[in-house]
Design a protein that fits this description.
By secondary structure, the chain is of the alpha+beta class. The chain is built from two helices and two strands, in the order βαβα.
Length: 73
């Protein structure tokens, strides 16, 4: 994957580290108040169409209903 060009001349009003529940909400509140926010996240870039599963219906799960039987001694 080619490296992207980084523009070090940009300035921001706030930097939020972590896009979890609190970081995402903080970034949202700050940007809705007109601030320029840089949101940093560690880790690899995930393909959102493959990773975002919160909107799936339980009956669409390929493993639905399959479980290993519990064997009691």
């Amino acid at each position: 994957m080619p490296e992207s060009v980084v523009d070090l001349t940009k300035t921001y009003d706030a930097v939020v580290v972590g896009s979890g529940a609190a970081g995402g909400m903080a970034a949202h509140v700050l940007t809705t108040h007109g601030l320029k926010v840089l949101l940093l996240e560690a880790g690899k870039k995930l393909p959102i169409e493959k990773e975002l599963r919160s909107m799936e219906w339980p009956y669409d799960n390929a493993n639905r209903g399959s479980c290993l039987p519990i064997v009691m001694p």
